[in-house]
Specification:
Keywords: Signal. The chain is mostly beta strands. The protein contains 1 helix and 8 strands; from the N terminus they run H-E-E-E-E-E-E-E-E. Strands 1-2-3-4-5-6-7-8 form an 8-stranded antiparallel beta barrel. A hairpin with a 2-residue loop joins strand 2 and strand 3.
């Protein structure tokens, strides 16, 4: 009995911590079509958050490459591509990192904020945060 209560408490605390963190898998939504595009897996490494494309949902684009990317990412498969890097927790948001848009190959400054339990507002911008756009990603359960 005590073990099951302890297990239940541990499960609840773990779920609560998970819900307050962007670590996990998120579904991205296309700005124009409002259709789901991909899954991005966000993970922590050395105290910073990173994200890579773990699944492409758009039919016919499963093997797409980042043809517009430059440098080492040029012509790399989008599946598995690290698109988020170096975000640090600052108050209620994660910022100070970068995001790559594999559609146009451009790199932007990035910040993220949890919007409830199952939504993540991801903002890419140039210079100051006012000069950018925000996408709302949905947690994949």
């Amino acid at each position: 009995m005590k073990k099951s209560i302890l297990f239940g408490l541990f499960f609840m605390l773990t779920s609560l911590m998970y819900a307050q963190s962007p670590i996990g898998t998120w579904k991205t939504i296309d700005d124009e079509t409002k259709q789901a595009k991909s899954y991005v897996e966000i993970f922590e490494k050395d105290g910073k958050l990173y994200g890579k494309v773990s699944k492409i949902l758009t039919k016919g684009k499963e093997n797409a490459k980042c043809t517009e990317c430059t440098g080492a990412l040029k012509n790399k498969p989008i599946l598995g591509l690290q698109i988020l890097s170096g975000l640090k927790k600052e108050g209620k948001e994660w910022s100070g990192g970068k995001i790559i848009d594999p559609t146009n190959g451009k790199e932007y400054k990035a910040k993220m904020t949890l919007n409830g339990v199952d939504k993540l507002d991801v903002r890419g911008y140039i210079g100051i945060s006012l000069m950018g756009r925000t996408q709302t990603w949905q947690r994949v359960k």
